[in-house]
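target protein:
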Amino acid sequence: MVWNFSYEKSDTQRFEVPRMLFDDPKVLETYVKKRRDQNLQRWWAQYLESIGDFSGAKGFYQASKDYLSVIRLLCYKGLIDEATEIANKTADKAACYHLACFFENSGDVNSAVHFFTKAHTYSSAIRLAKEHNMKEKLANLALMAGGSDLVEAARYYEDLPGQADKAVMLYHKAGMIGRALDLAFRTEQFSALDLIAKDLDERSDPRVLERAAEFFINNQQYEKAVQFLAYAKNYTGAIELCQKKNVPVTEQLAEILTPSKETIPNMIERNELLEKVADCCVQQRNYHFAAKKYTQAGNMLQAMRSLLKSGDTEKIIFFAKKAHNKEIYILAANFLQTLNWKTDGNFMRYIETFYTKAKAYELLASFYEACAQVEIDDYRDYSKANAALAEAQRCIKTALEDESKNVIELSEKLDELNHRIANIKKFIGIRNIYETDPNDAIRQAQALADEKGIEESVRIGDIYAVMIVHNARKSNFKKAYSLICQLQERQPRIDVSR
């Protein structure tokens, strides 16, 4: 037909074709079916409904996806099961709402709530749930609805005995953290409190944080209490609780307890708090964190003392090198002397370097004396011992040049070193001339052994060893034995086999 093509081309077929064919329903129905235009299908369905052809109307309403009209017809005809099936299958909001209203008017509250929910008209579902005391469904409906419905539902549950847990949960979801916490405290909803606490941070209301901390203190959950006190900027209270209850100061907690410069602009006050955190770490033997906090507080000396307690040699050396502080250099060198520096050349070099940078020449001299004694006791190497004492002598001379207070003590120390060096040189000389003039060497050895206080410079056993070996080589065993007896009288505990 040319006419319908023209109407379609001009997009007026939805009005003009029904007008022209209205007197010939069969042709018009054929046209509607053929076109599959939803607007035409809906119009034709309405026409069929108006003339009482409900079955035909239902078919065309379904074809046009006008499910509201389908449900309306089915409800009118009493075909509720079919209406329910279609509403559930299509989930059309308008259709579900119509069916929900039908069920409400029919007294089927459960079905009404179900279809109000599918229609996303949660306020109607909530209204019905409240009116009919449907406590189990109301919470889920409020969660789906959100907004003010959450608060209204929470208030509803709050007034019901034994339903406080749902009220707390709904207040929490509504963002009313303070109200949720308050109700949870009053009703002792411990599990809910743990859940709410996860949403608290430094941006939360300080009053809420303090209240949460109070609750956790009362329930002996001190770590959480410390965290919330710190979030509330109550750093002093948090640190005191750490110390009192020995709450482990982890790296994360230590950072939470560290106030920013913006939070506490007063540097003195901030440093005092940092030192309290560090003191707490020391109390718990958490020396590395303590050192970090002391450093942040500008107390480098206490930071070094904490590292010394940790025994972390690598960090101690690193810290001393970076600190550029006399006392810290001395502490580091003193610590290194407690280690096996005798076999580790690096330790020896650091000890020398740190004492030198600290200008602690007396302490460096004492270290060289210790080195000399090791050479004598462990290796019988008097040449190296003499070299070490010469270094000690040099240090004391430098100290005399720099010091003006303890000149007398330093002078006495220098005299003592001079005397020891002289005695060691004598002993080295005795050993050297023995190969060419044994008798003179033995005479000098006897004289050296008879010197008062010789043991402070040379091991008496080493001097007697020269004389005993000499007599044994000469087969003068009686004399050798006599010398052994003399040695044992002078040093009863000496091991003559060494």
